[in-house]
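Can you make up a protein sequence with its backbone structure tokens?

===
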Amino acid sequence: MDKLITAVSLYLASGVALAANLDEAANVPAETVSTVYVVLFAILFFGMIIGFFGWMWWNEKHRKHDR
């Protein structure tokens, strides 16, 4: 069963790769983004992850203290 699932997923992934038209992809201009936006996104993204785990730690600390 595992081999079947692996085979089907690889077949579907290769079909998507073969369906891509390389000529059209090469002619499309790449959009560029300012580095400021990338850095801002990274700060917000990792800040929210750190904040979430900090909040979980804080709640667990108070939950143990209340017991």
Notes: The radius of gyration is 23 Å. The mean pLDDT is 82. The CA atoms of residues 44 and 50 lie 10 Å apart. The chain has three helices and no strands.
